[in-house]
Amino acid sequence: MTFGEKLLELRRAHGMSQDALAEQLNVSRQAVSKWERDEAAPETDKIIKLAQLFHVSTDYLLLDAPERPRQEVPPQQSPPSSRP
Q1: DSSP 12-73
Q2: With 70 as the cut, is the pLDDT of residue 8 above it?
């Protein structure tokens, strides 16, 4: 799934128009449209805002992964042993 496909899916899932998203990011609707068509890519600060807005990681947005990553809990690490 490309960045543009993910952005389109996330925007629609959140019931946002391109205009509403553009306003939140302080860009034009045309910029959002180009991102969704993979004709252009947003600047780093916009990618961070998108990740925060849609509650996903920047890795999810940027990496070519087929689906959203699962929420995984990191394994518990044992505290260092206090043996002398």
Answers
A1: HHTT--HHHHHHHHTS-HHHHHHHHTTSS---HHHHHHHHHHHT--HHHHHS--SSPPP--P
A2: yes
